[in-house]
TrEMBL record:
<dbReference type="InterPro" id="IPR001752">
    <property type="entry name" value="Kinesin_motor_dom"/>
</dbReference>
<dbReference type="GO" id="GO:0005524">
    <property type="term" value="F:ATP binding"/>
</dbReference>
<dbReference type="GO" id="GO:0005874">
    <property type="term" value="C:microtubule"/>
</dbReference>
<feature type="domain" description="Kinesin motor">
    <location>
        <begin position="23"/>
        <end position="349"/>
    </location>
</feature>
<dbReference type="GO" id="GO:0016887">
    <property type="term" value="F:ATP hydrolysis activity"/>
</dbReference>
<dbReference type="GO" id="GO:0003777">
    <property type="term" value="F:microtubule motor activity"/>
</dbReference>
<dbReference type="GO" id="GO:0005871">
    <property type="term" value="C:kinesin complex"/>
</dbReference>
<dbReference type="GO" id="GO:0008017">
    <property type="term" value="F:microtubule binding"/>
</dbReference>
<dbReference type="Pfam" id="PF00225">
    <property type="entry name" value="Kinesin"/>
</dbReference>
<dbReference type="InterPro" id="IPR027640">
    <property type="entry name" value="Kinesin-like_fam"/>
</dbReference>
<dbReference type="GO" id="GO:0007018">
    <property type="term" value="P:microtubule-based movement"/>
</dbReference>
<dbReference type="GO" id="GO:0005737">
    <property type="term" value="C:cytoplasm"/>
</dbReference>
<comment type="similarity">
    <text>Belongs to the TRAFAC class myosin-kinesin ATPase superfamily. Kinesin family.</text>
</comment>
<feature type="binding site">
    <location>
        <begin position="118"/>
        <end position="125"/>
    </location>
    <ligand>
        <name>ATP</name>
    </ligand>
</feature>
<dbReference type="InterPro" id="IPR027417">
    <property type="entry name" value="P-loop_NTPase"/>
</dbReference>
<dbReference type="InterPro" id="IPR036961">
    <property type="entry name" value="Kinesin_motor_dom_sf"/>
</dbReference>
<protein>
    <submittedName>
        <fullName>Kinesin-like protein KIF22</fullName>
    </submittedName>
</protein>
Length: 415
Protein backbone atom coordinates (compact mmCIF):
# COMPACT_ATOMS: atom_id res chain seq x y z
CA UNK A 1 0.00 0.00 0.00
CA UNK A 2 1.54 3.29 -1.03
CA UNK A 3 1.20 6.44 1.00
CA UNK A 4 -0.42 9.35 -0.79
CA UNK A 5 0.54 12.88 0.20
CA UNK A 6 0.38 16.21 -1.60
CA UNK A 7 4.17 16.21 -1.91
CA UNK A 8 4.09 12.95 -3.89
CA UNK A 9 2.95 14.81 -7.01
CA UNK A 10 6.28 16.63 -7.03
CA UNK A 11 8.30 13.43 -7.29
CA UNK A 12 8.87 13.09 -11.02
CA UNK A 13 9.22 9.80 -12.83
CA UNK A 14 11.79 9.74 -15.63
CA UNK A 15 11.06 7.91 -18.84
CA UNK A 16 11.49 4.18 -18.34
CA UNK A 17 14.06 2.43 -20.48
CA UNK A 18 15.54 -1.04 -20.82
CA UNK A 19 16.90 -2.50 -17.61
CA UNK A 20 20.00 -4.59 -17.25
CA UNK A 21 20.89 -4.31 -13.56
CA UNK A 22 20.18 -1.74 -10.88
CA UNK A 23 23.05 0.55 -9.96
CA UNK A 24 21.80 1.76 -6.58
CA UNK A 25 21.36 -0.67 -3.71
CA UNK A 26 18.64 0.49 -1.31
CA UNK A 27 18.61 -0.89 2.21
CA UNK A 28 16.77 0.09 5.37
CA UNK A 29 18.12 0.68 8.88
CA UNK A 30 15.75 0.81 11.84
CA UNK A 31 16.98 3.20 14.49
CA UNK A 32 17.36 1.93 18.03
CA UNK A 33 15.19 3.31 20.81
CA UNK A 34 16.39 6.35 22.72
CA UNK A 35 16.48 6.21 26.51
CA UNK A 36 13.14 7.96 26.70
CA UNK A 37 11.60 5.65 24.11
CA UNK A 38 12.99 2.60 25.90
CA UNK A 39 11.14 3.57 29.06
CA UNK A 40 7.91 3.85 27.09
CA UNK A 41 8.53 0.63 25.12
CA UNK A 42 8.86 -1.32 28.35
CA UNK A 43 5.26 -0.52 29.19
CA UNK A 44 2.96 0.48 26.36
CA UNK A 45 4.87 0.82 23.06
CA UNK A 46 4.11 -1.94 20.55
CA UNK A 47 6.31 -2.81 17.56
CA UNK A 48 5.61 -0.51 14.62
CA UNK A 49 8.20 -1.67 12.06
CA UNK A 50 8.59 -5.34 11.18
CA UNK A 51 10.88 -6.99 8.63
CA UNK A 52 9.78 -10.03 6.62
CA UNK A 53 12.48 -12.03 4.83
CA UNK A 54 11.37 -13.53 1.52
CA UNK A 55 11.47 -17.27 1.00
CA UNK A 56 13.57 -18.91 -1.70
CA UNK A 57 10.39 -19.78 -3.58
CA UNK A 58 9.39 -16.11 -3.92
CA UNK A 59 9.86 -14.23 -7.17
CA UNK A 60 12.63 -12.08 -5.66
CA UNK A 61 14.02 -13.86 -2.57
CA UNK A 62 16.86 -11.37 -2.15
CA UNK A 63 14.49 -8.54 -1.18
CA UNK A 64 12.74 -7.96 2.14
CA UNK A 65 9.36 -6.47 2.99
CA UNK A 66 9.06 -3.90 5.74
CA UNK A 67 5.64 -3.40 7.33
CA UNK A 68 4.41 -0.43 9.33
CA UNK A 69 1.49 -0.62 11.73
CA UNK A 70 0.45 -1.75 15.18
CA UNK A 71 -0.16 -5.45 15.77
CA UNK A 72 -3.85 -4.85 16.42
CA UNK A 73 -4.35 -2.55 13.44
CA UNK A 74 -6.09 -3.82 10.31
CA UNK A 75 -4.24 -1.32 8.10
CA UNK A 76 -0.59 -1.97 7.33
CA UNK A 77 1.73 -0.24 4.90
CA UNK A 78 4.21 -2.60 3.21
CA UNK A 79 7.23 -1.75 1.09
CA UNK A 80 10.04 -3.76 -0.52
CA UNK A 81 13.75 -2.97 -0.15
CA UNK A 82 16.94 -4.83 -1.02
CA UNK A 83 17.58 -5.44 2.67
CA UNK A 84 16.77 -4.00 6.09
CA UNK A 85 18.83 -3.98 9.27
CA UNK A 86 16.90 -4.17 12.50
CA UNK A 87 17.45 -2.47 15.83
CA UNK A 88 19.75 -5.13 17.24
CA UNK A 89 22.14 -4.79 14.27
CA UNK A 90 24.57 -1.94 14.88
CA UNK A 91 26.76 0.08 12.51
CA UNK A 92 29.47 -2.60 12.57
CA UNK A 93 27.09 -5.09 10.97
CA UNK A 94 26.04 -2.62 8.28
CA UNK A 95 29.68 -1.76 7.58
CA UNK A 96 30.84 -5.36 7.19
CA UNK A 97 28.00 -6.30 4.85
CA UNK A 98 27.44 -3.13 2.85
CA UNK A 99 30.37 -0.68 3.06
CA UNK A 100 33.47 -2.85 3.33
CA UNK A 101 32.87 -4.55 -0.07
CA UNK A 102 32.68 -1.07 -1.64
CA UNK A 103 36.14 -0.17 -0.32
CA UNK A 104 37.63 -2.95 -2.43
CA UNK A 105 35.87 -1.48 -5.48
CA UNK A 106 37.27 1.99 -4.74
CA UNK A 107 40.80 0.63 -4.37
CA UNK A 108 40.40 -1.12 -7.73
CA UNK A 109 39.59 2.12 -9.55
CA UNK A 110 35.89 2.88 -9.09
CA UNK A 111 34.02 5.42 -6.97
CA UNK A 112 31.44 4.69 -4.30
CA UNK A 113 28.81 6.73 -2.47
CA UNK A 114 26.94 5.97 0.75
CA UNK A 115 23.91 8.24 1.24
CA UNK A 116 21.82 8.31 4.43
CA UNK A 117 18.21 9.28 3.70
CA UNK A 118 15.23 9.45 6.03
CA UNK A 119 12.83 11.51 8.08
CA UNK A 120 13.99 13.79 10.85
CA UNK A 121 15.19 11.90 13.90
CA UNK A 122 15.58 8.59 12.05
CA UNK A 123 19.26 8.08 12.92
CA UNK A 124 21.03 9.29 9.76
CA UNK A 125 23.74 11.24 11.57
CA UNK A 126 24.33 8.44 14.06
CA UNK A 127 24.74 5.99 11.18
CA UNK A 128 27.19 8.09 9.14
CA UNK A 129 29.03 10.12 11.80
CA UNK A 130 28.43 7.83 14.77
CA UNK A 131 28.45 8.60 18.47
CA UNK A 132 30.64 8.00 21.51
CA UNK A 133 29.32 4.46 22.00
CA UNK A 134 28.75 3.56 18.34
CA UNK A 135 31.38 4.31 15.68
CA UNK A 136 29.98 5.71 12.45
CA UNK A 137 30.34 4.19 8.99
CA UNK A 138 32.64 7.01 7.83
CA UNK A 139 35.19 6.45 10.61
CA UNK A 140 35.09 2.68 10.06
CA UNK A 141 35.76 3.22 6.36
CA UNK A 142 38.72 5.53 7.08
CA UNK A 143 40.25 2.95 9.43
CA UNK A 144 39.85 0.19 6.83
CA UNK A 145 41.25 2.33 3.99
CA UNK A 146 44.27 3.38 6.07
CA UNK A 147 44.90 -0.27 6.89
CA UNK A 148 44.73 -1.41 3.26
CA UNK A 149 46.79 1.49 1.82
CA UNK A 150 49.51 1.46 4.48
CA UNK A 151 52.01 -0.40 2.29
CA UNK A 152 50.63 0.67 -1.09
CA UNK A 153 52.30 4.12 -1.17
CA UNK A 154 48.97 5.88 -1.50
CA UNK A 155 47.81 9.03 0.26
CA UNK A 156 44.40 9.32 1.91
CA UNK A 157 42.87 12.80 1.79
CA UNK A 158 39.49 14.02 3.03
CA UNK A 159 37.16 16.91 2.24
CA UNK A 160 34.21 18.08 4.33
CA UNK A 161 31.40 20.17 2.89
CA UNK A 162 27.91 21.40 3.64
CA UNK A 163 25.03 22.05 1.22
CA UNK A 164 22.71 24.73 2.58
CA UNK A 165 19.87 26.17 0.45
CA UNK A 166 21.54 24.78 -2.70
CA UNK A 167 24.91 26.41 -1.94
CA UNK A 168 28.02 24.36 -1.16
CA UNK A 169 30.43 25.46 1.58
CA UNK A 170 33.87 24.14 2.52
CA UNK A 171 33.92 23.08 6.18
CA UNK A 172 37.67 22.47 6.48
CA UNK A 173 38.42 26.13 5.82
CA UNK A 174 37.65 28.19 8.96
CA UNK A 175 36.12 30.91 6.77
CA UNK A 176 33.73 28.42 5.14
CA UNK A 177 34.05 29.78 1.57
CA UNK A 178 31.49 28.80 -1.02
CA UNK A 179 32.50 25.98 -3.36
CA UNK A 180 31.87 26.44 -7.08
CA UNK A 181 30.60 23.40 -8.97
CA UNK A 182 32.01 23.72 -12.50
CA UNK A 183 32.22 21.58 -15.62
CA UNK A 184 35.31 21.51 -17.83
CA UNK A 185 35.52 21.11 -21.59
CA UNK A 186 35.54 17.31 -21.27
CA UNK A 187 32.34 17.32 -19.23
CA UNK A 188 34.12 16.52 -15.94
CA UNK A 189 32.83 18.08 -12.72
CA UNK A 190 35.33 20.29 -10.87
CA UNK A 191 34.84 21.54 -7.31
CA UNK A 192 36.66 24.86 -7.16
CA UNK A 193 37.44 25.93 -3.62
CA UNK A 194 36.98 22.57 -1.87
CA UNK A 195 40.05 21.95 0.28
CA UNK A 196 41.64 18.59 1.06
CA UNK A 197 43.54 17.43 4.12
CA UNK A 198 45.80 14.38 4.39
CA UNK A 199 44.85 11.80 7.03
CA UNK A 200 47.42 9.46 8.56
CA UNK A 201 45.52 8.03 11.54
CA UNK A 202 41.98 7.53 12.80
CA UNK A 203 42.57 9.99 15.65
CA UNK A 204 43.61 12.63 13.11
CA UNK A 205 40.39 11.97 11.21
CA UNK A 206 38.30 12.43 14.35
CA UNK A 207 39.98 15.80 14.93
CA UNK A 208 39.21 16.92 11.39
CA UNK A 209 35.62 15.63 11.43
CA UNK A 210 34.78 17.95 14.34
CA UNK A 211 34.01 20.57 11.67
CA UNK A 212 30.86 18.64 10.75
CA UNK A 213 29.26 19.67 14.03
CA UNK A 214 30.20 23.34 13.62
CA UNK A 215 27.59 25.68 12.08
CA UNK A 216 28.27 27.25 8.73
CA UNK A 217 29.39 30.86 9.27
CA UNK A 218 27.79 32.01 6.04
CA UNK A 219 24.35 31.73 7.64
CA UNK A 220 23.24 35.16 8.94
CA UNK A 221 22.90 35.38 12.71
CA UNK A 222 19.47 35.93 14.22
CA UNK A 223 18.40 37.15 17.68
CA UNK A 224 17.14 33.64 18.42
CA UNK A 225 19.60 31.01 17.28
CA UNK A 226 17.80 28.57 14.99
CA UNK A 227 19.20 25.20 14.01
CA UNK A 228 19.86 25.21 10.28
CA UNK A 229 19.09 22.02 8.39
CA UNK A 230 21.50 21.08 5.64
CA UNK A 231 23.19 18.20 3.85
CA UNK A 232 26.68 17.37 5.10
CA UNK A 233 29.18 15.25 3.27
CA UNK A 234 32.62 13.67 3.40
CA UNK A 235 34.83 12.86 0.43
CA UNK A 236 37.63 10.34 0.93
CA UNK A 237 40.25 10.62 -1.82
CA UNK A 238 42.70 7.76 -2.38
CA UNK A 239 45.56 9.26 -4.35
CA UNK A 240 48.65 7.73 -5.91
CA UNK A 241 51.78 9.62 -7.00
CA UNK A 242 50.22 10.42 -10.40
CA UNK A 243 47.07 11.70 -8.71
CA UNK A 244 49.01 14.07 -6.46
CA UNK A 245 50.87 15.51 -9.47
CA UNK A 246 47.51 16.24 -11.06
CA UNK A 247 47.75 13.94 -14.06
CA UNK A 248 44.84 11.81 -12.90
CA UNK A 249 41.70 12.30 -10.83
CA UNK A 250 41.89 10.28 -7.58
CA UNK A 251 39.26 7.72 -6.68
CA UNK A 252 36.70 8.89 -4.15
CA UNK A 253 34.41 7.40 -1.54
CA UNK A 254 31.54 9.67 -0.52
CA UNK A 255 29.50 9.70 2.67
CA UNK A 256 26.44 11.96 2.69
CA UNK A 257 24.25 12.76 5.69
CA UNK A 258 21.11 14.22 4.10
CA UNK A 259 18.84 16.69 5.84
CA UNK A 260 15.81 14.93 7.24
CA UNK A 261 12.54 14.92 5.34
CA UNK A 262 9.69 16.77 7.03
CA UNK A 263 6.18 17.37 5.72
CA UNK A 264 6.21 21.06 4.78
CA UNK A 265 2.52 21.39 5.68
CA UNK A 266 3.32 21.03 9.37
CA UNK A 267 5.05 23.66 11.47
CA UNK A 268 8.67 22.80 12.17
CA UNK A 269 9.88 21.94 15.65
CA UNK A 270 12.87 24.30 15.55
CA UNK A 271 11.54 27.35 13.73
CA UNK A 272 12.44 26.33 10.18
CA UNK A 273 10.42 28.43 7.75
CA UNK A 274 8.07 26.97 5.17
CA UNK A 275 10.31 28.22 2.35
CA UNK A 276 13.40 26.56 3.78
CA UNK A 277 11.55 23.30 4.41
CA UNK A 278 10.27 23.33 0.82
CA UNK A 279 13.81 23.84 -0.50
CA UNK A 280 15.11 20.92 1.53
CA UNK A 281 12.33 18.65 0.30
CA UNK A 282 12.90 19.77 -3.30
CA UNK A 283 16.56 18.83 -2.94
CA UNK A 284 15.58 15.42 -1.54
CA UNK A 285 13.17 14.85 -4.44
CA UNK A 286 15.98 15.69 -6.87
CA UNK A 287 18.24 13.10 -5.25
CA UNK A 288 15.53 10.42 -5.38
CA UNK A 289 14.86 11.26 -9.03
CA UNK A 290 18.53 10.56 -9.78
CA UNK A 291 18.39 7.28 -7.83
CA UNK A 292 15.32 6.18 -9.77
CA UNK A 293 16.84 7.17 -13.12
CA UNK A 294 20.00 5.19 -12.35
CA UNK A 295 18.05 2.11 -11.31
CA UNK A 296 15.89 2.18 -14.44
CA UNK A 297 18.91 2.73 -16.71
CA UNK A 298 17.68 6.05 -18.08
CA UNK A 299 19.50 7.73 -20.94
CA UNK A 300 19.10 11.08 -19.18
CA UNK A 301 19.80 11.31 -15.45
CA UNK A 302 18.57 14.61 -13.89
CA UNK A 303 21.77 15.52 -12.05
CA UNK A 304 21.07 19.24 -12.44
CA UNK A 305 17.91 19.12 -10.31
CA UNK A 306 20.04 19.24 -7.15
CA UNK A 307 23.38 20.88 -6.37
CA UNK A 308 24.39 17.82 -4.36
CA UNK A 309 23.80 15.34 -7.19
CA UNK A 310 25.53 17.74 -9.56
CA UNK A 311 28.71 17.79 -7.49
CA UNK A 312 28.58 13.98 -7.01
CA UNK A 313 27.85 13.27 -10.67
CA UNK A 314 31.27 11.69 -11.32
CA UNK A 315 30.72 9.23 -8.46
CA UNK A 316 27.08 8.37 -9.12
CA UNK A 317 27.16 7.57 -12.83
CA UNK A 318 28.93 4.99 -14.94
CA UNK A 319 30.07 1.76 -13.29
CA UNK A 320 30.36 3.32 -9.83
CA UNK A 321 28.52 1.97 -6.79
CA UNK A 322 25.83 3.74 -4.76
CA UNK A 323 24.30 2.63 -1.46
CA UNK A 324 21.16 4.40 -0.24
CA UNK A 325 20.63 3.83 3.48
CA UNK A 326 16.97 4.47 4.27
CA UNK A 327 16.84 5.25 7.99
CA UNK A 328 13.54 4.40 9.70
CA UNK A 329 12.00 5.63 12.93
CA UNK A 330 11.08 2.75 15.29
CA UNK A 331 7.96 4.57 16.53
CA UNK A 332 4.95 5.96 14.68
CA UNK A 333 6.06 8.64 12.19
CA UNK A 334 4.13 9.65 9.07
CA UNK A 335 7.25 11.12 7.47
CA UNK A 336 8.96 7.72 7.73
CA UNK A 337 6.06 6.15 5.81
CA UNK A 338 6.53 8.63 2.99
CA UNK A 339 10.31 8.12 2.95
CA UNK A 340 9.88 4.33 2.79
CA UNK A 341 7.38 4.73 -0.04
CA UNK A 342 9.81 6.71 -2.22
CA UNK A 343 12.71 4.39 -1.39
CA UNK A 344 10.66 1.32 -2.30
CA UNK A 345 9.59 2.81 -5.62
CA UNK A 346 13.19 3.69 -6.47
CA UNK A 347 14.18 0.13 -5.53
CA UNK A 348 12.21 -1.29 -8.45
CA UNK A 349 13.66 -1.86 -11.88
CA UNK A 350 11.98 -0.67 -15.06
CA UNK A 351 10.67 -4.18 -15.75
CA UNK A 352 8.99 -4.43 -12.35
CA UNK A 353 7.32 -1.04 -12.72
CA UNK A 354 6.17 -1.87 -16.25
CA UNK A 355 4.62 -5.16 -15.08
CA UNK A 356 2.87 -3.48 -12.15
CA UNK A 357 1.56 -0.69 -14.36
CA UNK A 358 0.31 -3.14 -16.99
CA UNK A 359 -1.76 -4.91 -14.32
CA UNK A 360 -3.17 -1.57 -13.16
CA UNK A 361 -3.99 -0.63 -16.75
CA UNK A 362 -5.89 -3.88 -17.34
CA UNK A 363 -7.81 -3.42 -14.09
CA UNK A 364 -8.89 0.12 -15.01
CA UNK A 365 -9.73 -0.99 -18.55
CA UNK A 366 -11.97 -3.80 -17.27
CA UNK A 367 -13.79 -1.38 -14.99
CA UNK A 368 -14.33 1.10 -17.81
CA UNK A 369 -15.54 -1.64 -20.15
CA UNK A 370 -18.18 -2.73 -17.66
CA UNK A 371 -19.37 0.86 -17.21
CA UNK A 372 -19.74 1.82 -20.86
CA UNK A 373 -20.50 -1.63 -22.26
CA UNK A 374 -17.55 -1.69 -24.64
CA UNK A 375 -15.72 -4.98 -25.23
CA UNK A 376 -12.07 -5.12 -24.26
CA UNK A 377 -11.09 -5.69 -27.86
CA UNK A 378 -12.19 -2.14 -28.59
CA UNK A 379 -9.68 -0.65 -26.17
CA UNK A 380 -6.42 0.58 -27.62
CA UNK A 381 -3.00 1.68 -26.36
CA UNK A 382 -3.02 -0.71 -23.39
CA UNK A 383 -0.11 -2.90 -24.44
CA UNK A 384 3.02 -3.07 -22.33
CA UNK A 385 5.07 -1.34 -25.01
CA UNK A 386 2.77 1.68 -24.97
CA UNK A 387 3.19 2.05 -21.20
CA UNK A 388 6.87 2.91 -21.51
CA UNK A 389 7.52 6.58 -20.92
CA UNK A 390 4.41 7.31 -18.84
CA UNK A 391 4.45 8.60 -15.29
CA UNK A 392 3.66 5.61 -13.15
CA UNK A 393 4.46 7.18 -9.78
CA UNK A 394 1.31 9.31 -9.81
CA UNK A 395 -1.13 7.01 -8.04
CA UNK A 396 -4.07 9.31 -8.69
CA UNK A 397 -3.54 9.42 -12.45
CA UNK A 398 -4.71 6.51 -14.56
CA UNK A 399 -2.82 5.42 -17.65
CA UNK A 400 -5.84 4.69 -19.87
CA UNK A 401 -7.43 6.79 -22.56
CA UNK A 402 -9.74 9.63 -21.59
CA UNK A 403 -13.30 8.70 -20.74
CA UNK A 404 -16.16 10.28 -22.66
CA UNK A 405 -18.34 12.34 -20.28
CA UNK A 406 -21.96 11.22 -19.94
CA UNK A 407 -24.60 13.96 -19.56
CA UNK A 408 -27.97 13.31 -17.91
CA UNK A 409 -31.04 15.51 -18.51
CA UNK A 410 -34.17 15.66 -16.36
CA UNK A 411 -37.37 16.65 -18.16
CA UNK A 412 -40.33 17.88 -16.10
CA UNK A 413 -43.75 17.19 -17.63
CA UNK A 414 -46.65 19.21 -16.16
CA UNK A 415 -49.67 17.15 -15.01
Amino acid sequence: MALSTPDSNRFKLPIAGPRISRRVRIVGKIRGFTDQESEISGRDLKPWVTVCRHKESDSDPEKVTISFGDEGSSRKDRYELDNCYEQDEDNAVVFSREVKPLIAEVLSGRNASIIAYGARGSGKTQTIQGSVDNEGLAAMAIAEILSQTKDAQKAVLVSFYEVFQDHVYDLLDPNHPEVQVLEDSQGKIKLKGLSKAAVDSISHFHDLSACLAAPCYSVPKTPIQILKRSHKGLMIHIASADDIQGSKCPNAMNFVDLAGYEDSRRSSKDGITLTESARINKSLYGIMNVVYALNTNEKRVPYRESKLTRMLQESLGGSNHVLLLTCLNPILCQDTLYVASLASRSCQSAGQILTSSTMKSKKHTNQQARLVGTPLSGKKNNSASNLIGRKLFSDRKTIISKQVPVHCFLVLIPI
